[in-house]
Amino acid sequence: MATPRRLSLLAPASRAETRRIADILRKETIGGALLLLAAVAALVWANSPWSETYAGLRSATVGPAGWHLDLSLAKWASDGLLAVFFFVAGLELKREFVAGDLRDPRRAVVPVAAAVGGVIVPALLYLLVNALLDDGAMRGWATPTATDIAFALAVLAVVGRRLPAALRTFLLTLAVVDDLLAIVIIAVFYTSHLSVVPLLAALAPLGVFTVLVQRRVRSWWLLLPLAAVTWGLVHASGVHATVAGVLLGFAVPVLRSEKAGGPEAGPGLAEHFEHRFRPISAGVAVPLFAFLSSGVPLGGLGGVTNLLTDPVPLGVIAGLVVGKPLGIMAATWLTARFTRADIDEGLAWVDVGGLAILSGVGFTVSLLVGELAFGLGTARDAQVKLAVLAGSLVAALLATVVLRLRDRAYRRLAEAETAECERAGAVAGDDRPPYGE
């Protein structure tokens, strides 16, 4: 009787999954660079002599008032542009759990547990820091729970080029589950009011959209209006409009139909849409949201020193820098402990620690949750944004130190293996008889 194979932490992905993930990494890494440039540009403009023009741009109102869509550009960015981001997240989530490596519970248990730990611990740490406040500060508990995959992968691409591919796969998979948890948190905890009629009405265009994509219809002139109407009705219902993007993503089939050859015939419609919309999400939607959201006056609201004295920004920073890595490491270790799993050969726990620290880079969703918790444009919203920027920067710098050291260790190991192979080849060549004997 064969001995059952023990669970392996950070095991390499399948070959097909590795190719797909490599494509995602390239796009998200470029998106992370654009995200950083957009955030820096917003900060520079908001703290320049022309800061009033930046504030005027963010508050400029666009859209039909009769349909309750006369929103500021900043609101359009958080409600509209991020719907594209969450549509791609919905596609990615469904694909991972239907056809990706996460369909195997043995592979899914580690990143799922790590993501859950990376949400619970920073939330508890934020609540602990703000336990004595009673002025609505507790509403920001979810702000430090999210990981910005584009930003984190951009850092990893720069400092960890020689790190094993399994580490990148683990970070990406963890972030996918993290997005799912963020979606649930936004839908459940940050719906201030609920209008049932528009929400029920949204089921009609969503249903038609679902029927069309299930029939493998790709015509944009049919699908895009249905998606826009679904988004508008969800927005009118009081549920955050980005949830519409997730529902639309979940509606898209992952596998090919039997008439088209079934799962073995190649990528399905979800992967087709993901390939089309991920560049738009990573290269346009998220950077524009960052540009319209992260411009915070550094000298106002007590300045940078306020980050370490006010419990709200302090709780956000503590959650990102301490809570995220602590939660991820604890959940991963407990998973290994209770499942008797072994870390994959060639990897070390310090590698997991470096990724856990890097997961504290929370940007896009953290900024969004801060706006939902305290109100767009409020004083506390500005404090939270500054705290998210500061906490993400500290997490990125700490992760850079750890991962750079590990990158050098893997480089020395690769050089030693190459030298050994060259010596072995030279010895084999010396032992061969002369030509002609």
Give the quaternary arrangement of the chains: single chain
Number of helices: 15
Spatial strand order of the main sheet? 1-4
Measured distance between first and last alpha carbons: 51 Å
Mean pLDDT: 85
Helix content: 55-70%
Low-confidence residue ranges:
none
The helix/strand order is EHHEEHHHHHHHHHHEHHH
CATH topology annotation? Na+/H+ antiporter like fold
The whole-angstrom Rg is 24 Å
The domain count comes to 1
Transmembrane segments: 29-47, 67-88, 108-129, 141-159, 171-190, 196-213, 220-252, 314-336, 348-370, 382-403
Function: Na(+)/H(+) antiporter that extrudes sodium in exchange for external protons.
Pfam families: Na_H_antiport_1
Main location: membrane
Secondary structure blueprint with pairings:
Blueprint: E1 8-9, H1 15-46, H2 51-59, E2 61-62, E3 71-72, H3 73-98, H4 105-129, H5 149-159, H6 165-189, H7 196-201, H8 203-214, H9 220-237, H10 242-251, H11 269-293, H12 311-339, E4 342-343, H13 349-358, H14 364-374, H15 379-431
Parallel strand pairs: 1-4
Antiparallel strand pairs: 2-3
Helix pairs in contact: 1-5, 1-11, 3-6, 3-10, 3-11, 4-6, 4-12, 5-15, 8-9, 9-10, 12-13, 12-15, 13-15, 14-15
